[in-house]
Amino acid sequence: MALCPQIVDGLIIGAGPAGLAAALAFARTRGTAIVFDSCSYRNEGIKHMHTVPSRDHSDPYEFRRIAREQIESRYQTIWFEKTTITLAVKQEIGTEKYVGFQVKDSEGKTYEGRKLIMATGSRDVFPDIPGYVENWPSHIYQCLGCDGYEQRGTPIGILEFNHPMASHLVNIALNFDPRVTIFSNGPISTEAPIQHALKISKALNAKIDERKITRLLNNGPSHTDGVTVEFETGEPVTLGFLVHKPPTVNRAQDLVEQLGLETVEPAMGGHVKVNGMFNETSVEGVFAAGDTMLLIKQVTLAMAEGVKAAAGAGSQIGKEKVEAALKAYEEKKG
Predict the structure, then answer these.
(1) How far apart are CA 264 and CA 274, in angstroms?
(2) 244-254, pLDDT tens digit by residue?
(3) CATH for 7-124+248-333, among 3.10.310.10, 3.50.50.60, 3.40.50.261, 3.90.1150.10?
(4) Which of 119, 232, 245, 281 could anchor a disulfide with 18, C-beta 3.0 to 4.6 Å?
(5) What is the pTM of this model?
């Protein structure tokens, strides 16, 4: 492996599907890049990922290992650092006073690059329900398309009902079992959009249980063991699994704020806002990929956005090289 240069073309923060795809795109054009891997992932504890062609039902840890191994063994211009970036600034770098980026990790080590790709992902914010963490992700799933198929044939619970799209979850859940119950964990909102979603759910024959939940019990590893929901009053209920979409926040919100990146409204997910085809953010030279900038957080989509971000960064670097060459050529002629 060649020595890493003082200044690389791309600093890629995040080594999930988006960051790895961005790294591969840099590698294919012989661009230089450092990938920073904090080893902290949204799908921590998940045994299988789905809807990923050629990798359906694969271990995400194995997926990341293979992707990194292929990059390191075949290409010589990509370096990996197992560390957490705590500071990112746009500033002049190198002797040519190039306006690029400097990042610093938790150990105080600094790195410099011409462009920055934020592939830092997101983090789920769990509700304060005893037993929730112990059942995530073995019996609580946020995506039926990702995990419903393997849990089919057992009773399903929809946890909470505070968004108009909740009826959509009910509709999909019925593809896996007709026994679908909404556990709202208290009274359901009387707001018109929520009530309309509730009406749809009732029309689809979903049951409604508004009792306050006191605890979730993990009965074993399989959906056939299931999860038991206990309430303040009445008898508990045992299900195969629960469906719940907790809100997400940017995993590296500190870096987002340090760089001054524009984000969408919290109601729309709060992720980093991008402009144009190649995912450039509100700060020139900073690109975003994957869950960092997607409302729909899914592996295949994240990989595609990683390639787009790297292409954008590479195109920007190429344009700068052309401008510099033309300027030097004109000066030489003059």
Answers:
(1) 9
(2) 999 999 999 99
(3) 3.50.50.60
(4) 119
(5) 0.93
